[in-house]
């Protein structure tokens, strides 16, 4: 038999392991996805708000550069113009900052979801170990990050160089335009460049996101022994569970034995099976099975019944049929009504004979049991 050392992590993470990892701040994240969302949102803002931002910058330039001699030599001018520049620049930049902040807050929902972990803020002196740092640099994760950085530089560099060649003539013509025309044209070039660069990041995102999800699952993989140990912790060891089941069975058996003295009759095999029935003559329901058992339990039922003067009736086929077809505290099935009625009729006759001093009736010798219930 092969030795299951449990060293190979081949099992998927359990729900408990996933919950614990989130508490530690271990959730899948993609830096490329965050960068892509920031760039694409910025490009969209420049596209829709570019005219407003250019007009705001032109307004600032007019106010800051169109100064008279008297204003320049006024000691209060720096303060006044600083406040004016701050307010105008604030009005231009604040919409962009608000939208980017909202985008940064919503981006984690795309991968991993929001997660706040107090454990992630706890200082860990193991991170100061230089050997661990070297191991991370030259480990698989470090190699993957290096590979991604190289691809990123090559891809962005290639796209940026081609954008420069495409817009080279336009950039050289900016000095021949008016200030307003030059700023408008420069804004258009910036918007298109950011859009194209954002689109190139989509390729990195399509590679990085599946890798980060796979790597997160790989890091949380468990060995078979870890899964077994976790099941023991959450559900209890087999020995403890067996002991609990034994105690539950003993408690159920005690409750069952407590119901035997109130039964109307005990149907027996006569030695291997014993079934206790109780019938309310004034009720609308069928007879109830209040206790049942085989071998030692059956003997205990018979002894309890004899001690409490509950009649015993030997009907082997009926006893087996009742035992297998009816659960505790349930009504007997309709197919056994006739057979049980004969037993109860005998019990009621026996009870009446005892009270009135009559001769005891003859117990039923042949109780009919349908073939569907024969065991």
What does this protein look like?
This protein is mainly α and 375 residues long. It folds into 2 domains: 18-221, no CATH class; 253-373, 3-Layer(aba) Sandwich (name from scop). It contains 12 helices and 5 strands. The protein has helices at residues 15-23, 31-65, 69-72, 77-106, 130-137, 140-172, 179-219, 224-235, 238-259, 295-307, 316-325, 337-356; strands at residues 265-268, 273-278, 288-294, 312-314, 330-331. A 5-stranded mixed beta sheet has the order 4-1-2-3-5, sandwiched between helices. Helix 2 packs antiparallel against helix 4, helix 2 packs antiparallel against helix 7 and helix 6 (140-172) packs antiparallel against helix 7. The model is unreliable at 1-6 (pLDDT under 50).
Structural class: mainly alpha
| Biggest sheet overview | 5 strands, mixed
Note the quaternary state here. Answer: single chain
Number of strand elements: 5
- pLDDT under 50 segments (min length 5)? 1-6
In angstroms, what is the radius of gyration?
Answer: 43 Å
> Helix amount, in percent?
55-70%
Region (Disordered): 1-26, 356-375
Family: Belongs to the type III secretion exporter family.
Function: Required for formation of the rod structure in the basal body of the flagellar apparatus. Together with FliI and FliH, may constitute the export apparatus of flagellin.
Keywords: Bacterial flagellum biogenesis, Bacterial flagellum protein export, Cell membrane, Cell projection, Cilium, Flagellum, Membrane, Protein transport, Transmembrane, Transmembrane helix, Transport
